[in-house]
Amino acid sequence: MDLNIFIKNFEEAIEGIEQGSITPETEFKKIEQWNSLAVLTLMAMVDSEFGVELTVDEIVKKCNTVSQLFELIISKKN
Fold first, then answer.
1. Cα atoms in the 13 Å half-sphere on the side-chain side of 13
2. Helices 3-13 and 66-77 sit at what angle, rounded to 10 degrees?
3. CB atoms within 10 A of CB 1
4. What is the DSSP letter of 35?
5. What angle do CA 68, 73, 78 make, to 5 degrees?
6. H or E segment to which residue 53 belongs
7. What are 10's strand-pairing partners?
8. What is the DSSP letter of 29?
9. CA nearest neighbour of 11 among 37, 56, 41, 35
10. DSSP-derived secondary structure for 2-13
11. Which whole-number Å values give the CA distances from 66 to 42, 47, 49, 60, in the listed order?
12. CA geometry: angle 14, 17, 19, nearest 5 deg
């Protein structure tokens, strides 16, 4: 699994995010499009693309940046 692929999938999954605007350091909770629908969309994308189930608590309480989200996915995959 590659961080750049995750970022590309993240940008495609969340409606209204401009391609190439997200970096590993992006604080995703500060993105204008971040809302409850975005959380559910992210959870579905991670499950279908990476085979990992995330909870809302894991996303909201354990992660601030896109890189932290990616690391959480990696930790659950192993």
1. 23
2. 110
3. 12
4. S
5. 125
6. none
7. none
8. G
9. 41
10. -HHHHHHHHHHH
11. 11, 16, 16, 12
12. 115
Place of tokens 């409850």: 36
- What is the C-alpha separation between 3 and 52, in angstroms, rounded? 15
The CATH homologous superfamily of the domain defined by 3-15+24-77: ACP-like (1.10.1200.10)
Look up the pTM and report it. 0.90
* Integer Cα distance of 69 and 62 in angstroms: 8
For the chain, domain boundaries: 3-15+24-77
- Return d(Cα 38, Cα 56) in angstroms, integer: 11
Residue type at position 18:
E
Q: pLDDT (tens digit, 0 to 9) for every residue of the chain, 78 residues total? A: 799 999 999 999 999 999 999 999 999 999 999 999 999 999 999 999 999 999 999 999 999 999 999 999 999 987
> Which residue, among 61, 52, 63, has the nearest Cα to 26 in the 3D structure?
63
